[in-house]
Amino acid sequence: MTSHQKKGEGPAVPAEIPPKPGRVWLLGAGPGDPDLITWRGVQLLGEAEVVMHDALSHPDLLELCPQAEIVDVGKLYGRRATPQFEINALLLRYAKQGKNVVRLKGGDPLMFARGSEEALALAEAKITFEIVPGVTSPVAASAFAGISLTHRDASSSVTFITGSDKKGKEWSDEAWKKLATATGTICVFMGMRRIAAITRAIVEGGRRPQTPAAVVQWGARPEQRTVVGTLETIADEVEKAGLSNPAIIIVGEVVALRDKLRWYDNRPLFGRGVLVPRPVHQARETARALRHRGAVPIMCPAIEILGPPDPAQLQEAVQTAKDYDWVVFTSANGVTAFFSVVRALGLDARVFGLSRVAAIGPKTSQALERFGIHADLVAREFVAERLVEDLLRVTKEGARILIPRASEAREILPEALRRANLEVRVVAAYQTFHVKGEAAKLLQRQIKEDAEIVLFSSSSMVDAVVQALGSEASETLGQRTLACIGPVTAATLRNYGLEPSVEASVYTMEGLLDALENMFGSAA
Fold first, then answer.
1. How many Cα atoms occupy the beta-carbon half-sphere of 105 within 13 Å?
2. Choosing from 35, 75, 265, 514, which is the catalytic residue?
3. Cis amide bond preceding 246, omega within 30
4. Handedness of CA 269, 274, 278, 279 (dihedral sign)
5. Which fold has domain 139-261?
6. Which residues touch 364 (CB under 8 Å, ≥6 apart)?
7. Which helix (H) or strand (E) segment is 23 a member of?
């Protein structure tokens, strides 16, 4: 019996130990392009238990934290916003529950982003926190607009200022007048509602009416729009163009450099909506490549990928792969499906034994490399016919070939190999199905409302998109730029009475995007 326990009482029940407080990271997402986030930021998102994000942090960044609870606390003018005191309370609540929290903020967490207020609330509650800087919006927006904020011959100073003071009240005209000649370049955050009054006050403060000025909306994103004028004209130019928040106002002689420094929004694909109808896990890499070229990627799958119709057959094929002379992969999906079984069976790359491995193209080869396999043969072109030629060049008659592939794939490859007196076994590694119902309706809307270009990376993709559009396929697709990865896909499109707008000469997605840029570039 313990000293504090009374006679006749049961054993003492220990008091519940409160959880150890978690940590909070105030993380700058950078503006616009999700690739502008720091490497530290990528790591933290992958480890977070809770992610509280702003409206201006790019939505693609949330794909980096599938394990986390996602909480939207964004603020945008004109829509209901989460009050700052609620955001602070949420941070404290999650941290006191012992969770590791990432507060994902657009741009930099401290530059006019109220991150310091959140940090103070955490400090007062004795919650451990870390501030992870990010690229701030005017720095990125001006760079992507081709405007250098400073230049030895044009401006040796720059001032960042908000369009409102702490209480949300506008700065007085007198304040803008004082700023007018006190600095070289002026960058105004959140000033769009008063752009006419602000620019007029700067002129009245002594700045020349002809001073170059610009407004950059949605900086560092494919939706970016830039309007250039002078202090005297910029408010009218912005109104004509219909620009609104989020936007940065830039005033100064450096704006005149845009004509020579412009590099982002003059690209051939800039601002063009490009539909990528592949399954989302495959579309991400293509979407990133499109963003790098200034296009607006629209990820909306036309097909879905499911497991094999007979899993036992694929398992048996994996277990006997070493008995074949060649194991031939015709897609990255086939590689993924094959190795998912390898892992499920507790096996590794030794399943191939002395068998050689072939891949139909560079993407399939790269998929193999992710599993530690370097292909013995990679077809020079991403078509079955070329893979047949390359295989026959190095394979003796009677050799045994295993082909794990989609259950619906073309028969060209196995039939051609059989005609060459090779023993071929085809096993279904996965199945593809055309989207239906609401998924098909969403695809229809995306093509009709947002897509200027449709990418076709396979014949099955053509079939799926045409089926989703139904009786409207010919009319709808006839009004779009149709881009085909190669001659086989182009032939499938022609079978539906549709003519490809562009066809890649190098049968890869990179080659297709190059062909698109060349087409639009030559038409400019």
1. 27
2. 75
3. yes
4. positive
5. 3.30.950
6. 329, 330, 331, 332, 334, 335, 375, 378
7. strand 23-30
Closest by Cα among 404, 499, 510 to 457: 510
Q: Considering only the C-alpha atoms of the chain, give the largest distance between any 2 of them, rounded to a whole number of Å.
A: 95
Tokens of 68: 């986390």
DSSP string of 123-160, one letter each residue: HHTT-EEEEE----HHHHHHHHTT--S-BTTTBS-EEE
Four-residue CA torsion sign, 331, 336, 342, 347: positive
Tell me the fold of 273-302+435-523. Rossmann fold (3.40.50)
Alpha-carbon gap, residue 112 to 74, rounded angstroms: 15
Helix 234-241 and helix 195-204: axis angle, to 10°? 170
Q: Which residue type is seen at 336?
A: T
Please indicate whether residue 363 is annotated as part of the active site.
Answer: no
Q: Single out the catalytic residue among 33, 54, 108, 463.
A: 54
Provide the residue-wise pLDDT of the chain in tens; the chain has 524 residues: 444 444 445 555 555 666 788 999 999 999 889 999 999 999 999 999 999 999 888 989 999 999 999 999 987 655 567 899 999 999 999 999 999 999 999 999 999 889 999 999 999 999 999 999 999 999 999 999 999 999 999 999 999 999 875 555 667 888 899 999 999 999 999 899 999 999 999 999 999 999 999 999 999 999 999 999 999 999 999 999 999 989 999 999 999 999 999 999 999 999 999 999 998 888 989 999 999 999 999 999 999 999 999 999 999 999 999 999 999 999 999 999 999 999 999 999 999 999 999 998 888 999 999 999 999 998 866 677 778 888 988 899 999 999 999 998 878 889 999 999 999 999 999 999 999 999 999 999 999 999 999 999 988 899 999 999 999 999 999 999 999 998 989 999 999 999 999 999 888 899 999 999 999 988 76
How far apart are the C-alpha atoms of 266 and 271, rounded to whole Å? 10
Domains 23-135 and 139-261 share a fold: no
Could you tell me which residues come within 8 angstroms of residue 467 by beta carbon, excluding any fewer than 6 positions away?
A: 434, 440
Q: Is 75 designated active site?
A: yes
Checking phi first, is residue 344 left (phi over 0); if not, alpha (psi -120 to 50) or beta?
alpha
Regarding the domain delimited by 307-430, which CATH topology (the fold level of the hierarchy) does it fall under?
Rossmann fold (3.40.50)
Whether residue 54 lies in the annotated active site = yes
Among the options 99, 105, 177, 190, which is catalytic? 190
- Strands 247-251, 212-217: pairing is antiparallel
Amino acid at 474: S
- Cα 315–chain centre separation: 34
Q: Which fold has domain 23-135?
A: Cobalt-precorrin-4 Transmethylase; domain 1 (3.40.1010)
